[in-house]
């Protein structure tokens, strides 16, 4: 960041935080974040230290990614609903500050990197306890339901989330122009076994190992809300359990972190409803195709 941009950022943050004296002690690029850019800010405001994260667009983005103002609105909605997320602090839509919109949130401490998380069996009190916590946290996300005026940018809930997802995957494959017969075959197989529609809830749509900050006590923060949408809650259950997010620890079916049964049990306890295992299995298969399509797009 240039000295001029840093000065503009300092002035904007001072105003957003209440027009008091503010200094930026350091700005550090954080690892992770395949689509967006995250910067750790160490600041002093009114003489007190504060640790924040600034989140903005990277040079390369995906068309299906929400904007930073939209992601900020989701973070506010999740925080208000009791989901464990970093506290959203400030939103800047003035491109004159850094050249693109950004938001600032409190910094949470822990480990998110998948290859590290799956090797540490002590996180969150052990594998089974942490898997249950992941299920309970997801149930809090799914308690957010349409209609919501503050989330109007998500559009109307799909009448049939499964078929809408299949249609979207086919459209993206067609737009890419590269023949991918294995994925086409997989979509056709899923089409033949598609579950009936259910009422929509807010789905995180990227709830996986790598997007959940963990520490010794449990979940420190659910991160990266840029793909959130209205849909079938079982899509999130299937996404976390997909083999591509186990980072080699395949025996632990819930994201390489813990047992599937413990994850489901935590979800059921939080949601007050049973997991439809056949429906979750369908979405788990869809997760592999969806990830392949995203990877091809990237």
What is the element layout, followed by pairings?
Layout: H1 3-16, E1 22-29, E2 36-45, E3 48-57, H2 68-80, E4 88-92, H3 95-98, E5 102-106, H4 114-117, H5 127-142, H6 161-176, H7 181-192, E6 201-203, E7 212-215, E8 218-222, E9 229-231, H8 234-241, H9 260-271, H10 277-297
Helix pairs in contact: 5-9, 6-7, 6-10, 7-10, 8-10
Verbal overview:
With 298 residues, this protein is α+β, with helices and mostly antiparallel strands. The protein has 10 helices and 9 strands. It has helices spanning 3-16, 68-80, 95-98, 114-117, 127-142, 161-176, 181-192, 234-241, 260-271, 277-297, and strands at 22-29, 36-45, 48-57, 88-92, 102-106, 201-203, 212-215, 218-222, 229-231. The strands form 3 sheets. A 5-stranded antiparallel beta sheet has the order 1-2-3-5-4, sandwiched between helices. It has a two-stranded antiparallel sheet with strand order 6-9. A hairpin with a 2-residue loop joins strand 2 (36-45) and strand 3. Helix 6 (161-176) packs antiparallel against helix 7. The protein is globular. The mean pLDDT is 94.
The percent of residues in helical segments reads 40-55%
Topology pattern, helix = H, strand = E: HEEEHEHEHHHHEEEEHHH
For the largest beta sheet, what order do the strands appear in spatially? 1-2-3-5-4
SS class? alpha+beta
Radius of gyration from the CA trace? Answer: 20 Å
- In terms of DSSP E residues, the strand content is 15-25%
Q: Choose one word for the global shape.
A: globular
Q: Whole-number average pLDDT?
A: 94
Q: How many distinct helices? A: 10
């Amino acid at each position: 960041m240039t000295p001029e941009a840093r000065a503009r950022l300092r002035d904007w943050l001072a105003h957003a935080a209440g027009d008091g004296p503010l200094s930026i002690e350091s700005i550090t690029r954080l690892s992770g974040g395949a689509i967006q850019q995250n910067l750790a800010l160490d600041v002093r405001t009114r003489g007190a230290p504060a640790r924040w994260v600034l989140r903005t667009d990277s040079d390369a983005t995906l068309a299906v990614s929400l904007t930073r103002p939209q992601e900020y609105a989701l973070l506010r909605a999740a925080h208000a609903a009791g989901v464990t997320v970093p506290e959203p602090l400030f939103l800047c839509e003035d491109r004159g500050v850094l050249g693109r919109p950004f938001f600032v949130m409190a910094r949470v401490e822990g480990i998110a990197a998948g290859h590290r998380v799956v090797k540490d069996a002590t996180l969150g009190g052990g594998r089974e306890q942490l898997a249950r916590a992941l299920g309970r946290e997801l149930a809090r996300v799914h308690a957010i339901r349409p209609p919501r005026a503050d989330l109007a940018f998500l559009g109307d809930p799909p009448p049939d989330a499964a078929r809408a997802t299949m249609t979207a995957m086919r459209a993206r494959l067609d737009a890419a122009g590269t023949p991918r017969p294995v994925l086409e075959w997989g979509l056709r197989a899923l089409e033949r076994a598609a579950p009936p529609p259910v009422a929509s809830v807010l789905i995180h749509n990227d709830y996986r190992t790598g997007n959940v900050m963990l520490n010794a006590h449990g979940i420190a923060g659910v991160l990266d809300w840029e793909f959130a949408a209205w849909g079938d809650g079982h899509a999130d259950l299937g996404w976390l359990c997909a083999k591509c997010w186990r980072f080699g620890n395949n025996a632990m079916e819930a994201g390489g972190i813990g047992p599937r049964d413990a994850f489901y049990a935590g979800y059921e306890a939080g949601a007050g409803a049973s997991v439809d295992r056949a429906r979750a299995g369908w979405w788990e298969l869809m997760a592999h195709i969806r990830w392949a399509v995203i990877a091809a797009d990237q």
